[in-house]
Amino acid sequence: MLAQLETPLETVTAAAHLARDHGVPFLLNAAPSRPLPDQLLAAVDVLIVNEHEARDVAGTDDLDEALERLGGEVETVVLTLGASGSRIVTRGEEPLEIPAVCVDAVDTTAAGDTYCGVLAAALARGAGYEEAATEAAAASALTVTRPGAQDSIPTRDEVRAALP
């Protein structure tokens, strides 16, 4: 289950606990960012944040400190870094660095939502984090080459063709 913070926090928290009760992984894109209650973070399996969101959620200006704090709260943190790729930090494992796909950006409107959706779909298909994040990076890169929001989101075939 994937959620983001444009939905009321009480609803997101209830969904996270419902997912946990039924053994369904819960992914949270912490956007728009804000501090999150401990009871929500305790039910999140994968927290997806950009640099700004990581700092906001963790309540610190230091990115490394933010990742350390968030990693103590959730099993896996996916930090998106735009043109610098992404970093996946899973408790007890070495961080994964996922390179960005270099493109000429036209409009970044739907980049984050595309990344999160493709990441969640790939994980649901059984992909590991490295494969899922690589696919999400390709999809997000294709998205920013097109204007608009929904119209800019690539098809799965387009994403597969763009994979390294």
Task: Please supply descriptive tags for the structure shown above.
alpha/beta; 164 residues; 7 helices; six-stranded mixed sheet; 6 strands
Please describe what this structure looks like.
With 164 residues, this protein is an alpha/beta fold. Helices cover 45% and strands 15% of the residues. The protein contains seven helices and six strands; from the N terminus they run E-H-E-H-E-H-H-E-E-E-H-H-H. Strands 1-2-3-4-5-6 form a six-stranded mixed β-sheet, with helices on both faces. A hairpin with a 5-residue loop joins strand 4 and strand 5 (86-90). The two termini are 27 Å apart. The mean pLDDT is 93.
Give the helix/strand layout.
Layout: E1 2-4, H1 9-21, E2 27-29, H2 38-41, E3 46-50, H3 51-58, H4 63-73, E4 76-80, E5 86-90, E6 96-98, H5 111-124, H6 129-144, H7 156-162
Parallel strand pairs: 1-2, 2-3, 3-4
Antiparallel strand pairs: 4-5, 5-6
Helix pairs in contact: 3-4, 5-6, 6-7
